[in-house]
Amino acid sequence: MKLLILGGTRFIGRYITERALKNGHEVTHFNRGNHAFPEVETLIGDRDGDLSALNGRSFDAVIDTSGYFPRTVSNSTARLAEVVDHYTFISTISVYKEFGEKPCTEESPVQVISEEEAERVTAEGAVPGEHYGALKALAEKEAEKHMPGRVLHIRPGLVVGPHDYSDRFSYWVKRLEEGGDVLAPGRPQRPIQFIDVRDLADCIVKMTEKKVTGVYNVTGPERHLTMGELLDTCMRISGSKALLHWLDEEFLISQGVTPWSDLPLWLPESNNAAADISVDRAIAKGLTYRPIEETVKDTLAWLKTRDPSLDWKAGLDPEKEKKLLNKTDRMYS
Q1: What percentage of the chain exceeds 90 in pLDDT?
Q2: CATH code: domain of residue 263
Q3: What percent of the chain has pLDDT over 70?
Q4: What DSSP assignment string belongs to 167-208?
Q5: Listed residue (4, 152, 140) closest to 70, CA to CA
Q6: Is residue 32 part of a domain?
Q7: Are residues 95 and 38 in the same domain?
Q8: Do the domain assignments include residue 198?
Q9: Rounded CA separation 172/230 (Å)
Q10: What are phi and psi of 167, to 5 degrees?
């Protein structure tokens, strides 16, 4: 299969590329050329401007790993509609209108944003924040408009594993290995969901090969996992002797601790339906999961190769953690 990947050089795209090459496909990247992937041909261009590098080219399938804005997805699908058979768009579970408030399936209503507001946010040029889910939902519609019935919409949850520079999962792997007194948020029994990037990539390539279309939530693990199980796994894999202190979430919020960024994977109980996303449809199409022990082990190994001078994008400042632990004994058992 001749496969075009839009983006494809860093995290999710990196593993999709590796899986596609392993499966024997001919892979081409289209991106700005900021990050090279020596094993594949790279076409240099700009999704919101110069698409001329695609002139005269045709592909069996496209996987779009970098479509944030509806206009750029519209430009790409319009340009490629006549020269590709199948288009995979990587969206997000954040598209759902009631995300975090209620359990969601692929039939749940999605967020809506006007074209005018979408253009305003696009013109600002940054990866969207509060409008992220609504923009992805509109981008899905744009892809379908130009390639009706030929689009696979993948809606991942939190994607984790080696080379994840968001630090939302890596923080816990690193923090538990360091040991000492560790602040943990809320109840140990609170469910969480995430997916190893390699399981996501395998699923995407497999479904693209079969030219599957429609909408699929792709997160996990297969069974509900708790925050306590994850942190215990991190300790076991690293050999850590850390002491976990599970602090009341109301206290944490009152102290200005930001869910998900200061303490990754933590959402207050009122929003924790975000950890109840149905993946039955994707499992029926062949989605599989590796043990979480493998994800933790490989993430830890990658972290040991990471440049220590790089700033962390998520996680609690060590001094703030100490102050919070000294302030309260409001802990869960």
Answers
A1: 83
A2: 3.90.25.10
A3: 97
A4: -TTHHHHHHHHH-SEEEEES-TT-EE--EEHHHHHHHHHHHH
A5: 140
A6: yes
A7: yes
A8: no
A9: 9
A10: 70, 5
Give the mean pLDDT of 86-90.
Answer: 98
C-alpha distances out from residue 101 to 63, 134, 270, 330, Å: 30, 16, 7, 26
The answer to whether 19 and 201 have CB atoms below 8 angstroms apart is yes
Q: pLDDT class for 313, splitting at 50, 70, 90? A: very high
User: Using alpha carbons only, how large is the chain's radius of gyration in Å?
Assistant: 20
Same domain, 231 and 304: yes
Q: Is residue 115 part of a domain?
A: yes
Residue partners of 208: CB distance under 8 A and separation at least 6:
3, 61, 63, 86, 88, 152
Q: What is the pTM of this model?
A: 0.95
The SS3 call for residue 64 is: strand
Q: Phi and psi of 183, rounded to 5°?
A: -80, 125
pLDDT higher than threshold 90 for residue 255: yes
What is the sign of the dihedral through the CA atoms of 8, 9, 15 and 17? positive
Q: How confident is the model at residue 333 (pLDDT cuts 50, 70, 90)?
A: very low
Strand (E) or helix (H) holding 158: none
The Cα 281–Cα 143 span in angstroms is 21
* DSSP H or E stretch at residue 241: none
Of residues 332 and 325, which shows the higher confidence score? Answer: 325
Structure tokens at 178: 């360091």
Burial label for 69, CB within 10 Å (0-12, 13-18, 19+), is buried
Question: Total domain count for the chain?
Answer: 2
Q: Give the amino acid at 256.
A: G
Residue 36 belongs to what domain range?
2-156
Last residue within a domain, chosen from 105, 129, 156: 156
Q: Is 205's pLDDT higher than 90? A: yes
